[in-house]
Write a structure and sequence with these properties.
Blueprint lengths: L13 H7 L3 E4 L2 E4 L2 H7 L8 H25 L4 H5 L4 H7 L5 E2 L3 H7 L7 E6 L8 H15 L3 E6 L21 H21 L14 E5 L1 H4 L4 H7 L6 H6 L1 H8 L6 H4 L1 H16 L3 E5 L3 H15 L5 E5 L12 E2 L2 E2 L9 H9 L3 H11 L4 H11 L8 H29 L10 H6 L6 E4 L1 H4 L4 H7 L6 H9 L3 E3 L2 E2 L17 E6 L3 E7 L1
Protein name: Tyrosine--tRNA ligase
Pfam families: SYY_C-terminal, tRNA-synt_1b
Main location: mitochondrion
Length: 521
């Protein structure tokens, strides 16, 4: 009976753990991972998931897990002189507007105390989607600041907690995700975190941190066998219901029409125990999160203090990513601004930041980039001077954030597409560049014989760029109709063979923003 009481995460889900459980160690630009399936297969247990084999696997997994941590421990042996060179990351975050609250001001002192070893800091990411989005980027940025200041970063994938769903900031209970979806989502966001935090390595000469050290863990690895009776005995008896009820995320939901399920109510204890587990087993002493995570973070520091009866666990929150009007920053007309290039191209990601209003751009430069504050102040002063070229600050913001998320290659791709797709640009278009933005703009396919010798007025309507021939003629007379970035000046202009880029595509533009890619069959 007790084996079946696995806190909703028990033996029925063990089979999926072969794919969802992962330990990743990102070190010196290599990305190593240890899949459970491989561990089981190598020990003749690929088709058997009985308790004996599972125990055997756990022994193997713990050894590998410990190895990934020990590699970081070796690199954590900083001398006192090195500690003297560590900038105070809390002060940096505060200066840039990235600090909301601290559970204990001693964290500020620990960051600058030369006798204190580098901190181990973690941020959690539940795999509720295939990719992280712009709202998650702040957590990655704050982790990166800790790295750059000489501390150790741990990213925790919520393979277990995603099965419950965090009620923080939500008016409705999250939909339940099946095991296959969780597996795919876990792969996706793990890949994103590893790549983003790997893009900046060795690019911060002013900081002494080991930018190549990153550990990625999955909390399903310690939750999958935790029996509900053990949980109640070991954790539940230390949790005060009154304190849990007072959390902001709980109070708001209890006041709503839908209320809150017991499953969601326990989420804060699950996240709290994650912190305790990492504190006790991995030496993690700081948890970071958005301001809406304050209740979950303090649940962890409380459990550590009550169960382990020690101090030294800290929580730090940063503000949510909001625009000056109070609305969330990170939503486009097409939905969330995803960090994965498979869900949003570097070009479209770059373009999103170009459209940031002047009222927000300086603040976003401080919180979303690693530019020196003096350089940001110079940009702010330039914006107030006569002769300032509009969107200069926005272009700098777009370049820095795109480089951090997508790397130098992603930025080059975005810049190339941006320049090539600007109406009137002198950049020669090629098929690859046009295809690179085909997912981000409307497109259609037409037969070669249909297109050749067709008037641009007719093509604009056939391709869906404009609604009518009269609208096309009117735009053409106003100088706003373009073929492959070249202005069309005559109504008699027809598509010629040399107009078809590499014999494969055409790019039609109505003004600066409305474009259609025409694929030639």
């Amino acid at each position: 009976m007790t084996a079946a009481l696995g806190l909703g995460l028990g033996m029925a889900a063990v089979a999926s753990s072969a794919a969802t459980s992962r330990v990743f160690h990102h070190h010196f630009s290599h990305f190593h991972f240890f899949p459970i399936r491989s561990s089981l297969q190598s020990h003749g247990a690929s088709s058997l998931l009985g308790l004996g084999n599972l125990a055997n696997f756990n022994s193997i997994f713990r050894r590998r897990n410990r190895f990934s941590v020990d590699v970081c421990s070796i690199n954590s042996n900083h001398t006192i002189s090195e500690a003297h060179r560590r900038p105070n990351v809390v002060e940096i975050l505060e200066e840039r507007g990235l600090l909301e609250s601290l559970t204990n001001d001693n964290l500020r002192k620990a960051c600058s105390d030369p006798t204190v070893p580098p901190l181990r800091v973690y941020c959690g990411f539940d795999p509720t989607a295939q990719s992280l989005h712009l709202g998650n980027l702040l957590g990655i940025i704050v982790l990166s600041w800790f790295q750059r200041c000489g501390h150790r970063a741990v990213a925790l994938i919520g393979g277990a907690t995603a099965r419950v769903g965090d009620p923080s900031g939500k008016s409705l209970e999250r939909p339940e995700l099946d095991s296959e979806t969780l597996v795919n989502n876990t792969f996706g966001i793990t890949d994103t975190i590893a790549k983003v935090l790997g893009n900046h390595r060795s690019k911060s000469p002013n900081f002494s941190g080991d930018l190549n050290s990153l550990v990625i863990l999955n909390n399903y690895d310690w939750w999958k066998e935790f029996r509900v009776l053990d949980f109640l005995k070991q954790v539940g008896r230390f949790a005060r219901v009154g304190t849990m009820m007072s959390k902001e995320s709980v109070k708001k939901r209890l006041e709503s029409e839908q209320g809150m399920s017991f499953t969601e109510f326990t989420y804060q204890l699950l996240q709290g125990y994650d912190f305790l587990h990492l504190f006790e087993n991995e030496g993690v002493n700081v948890q970071i999160g958005g301001s809406d995570q304050w209740g979950n973070i303090t649940a962890g520091t409380d459990l550590i203090r009550k169960i382990l009866q020690v101090e030294g666990a800290y929580g730090l929150t940063f503000p949510l990513l909001l625009k000056s009007d109070g609305t969330k920053f990170g939503k486009s007309e097409d939905g969330a601004v995803w960090l994965s290039p498979s869900m949003l191209s570097p070009y479209k990601f770059y373009q999103y930041f170009i459209s940031v209003p002047d009222a927000d751009v300086v603040r976003f430069l401080k919180i979303l980039t690693f530019l020196d504050m003096e350089e940001i102040s110079d940009l702010e002063r330039d914006m107030k001077k006569p002769g300032y070229v509009p969107n200069t600050a926005q272009r700098k913001l777009a370049e820095e954030v795109t480089r951090f998320v997508h790397g130098e290659d992603g930025l080059v791709e975005a810049l190339k597409a941006t320049e090539a797709l600007r109406p009137g640009a002198e950049t020669t278009l090629d098929w690859k560049t046009i295809e690179g933005i085909a997912e981000d703009v409307p497109s259609c396919s037409l037969a070669y014989d249909q297109v050749l010798n067709l008037s641009l007025v007719d093509l604009s309507v056939s391709a869906g760029l404009l609604e009518s021939k009269s609208a096309a003629r009117r735009l053409l007379k106003q100088g706003g109709l373009y073929l492959n970035n070249s202005r069309v000046d005559s109504e008699s202009k027809k598509v010629e063979e040399e107009d078809i880029v590499d014999g494969k595509v055409l790019l039609l533009s109505a003004g600066k923003k409305n474009k259609v890619v025409v694929r030639i069959l």
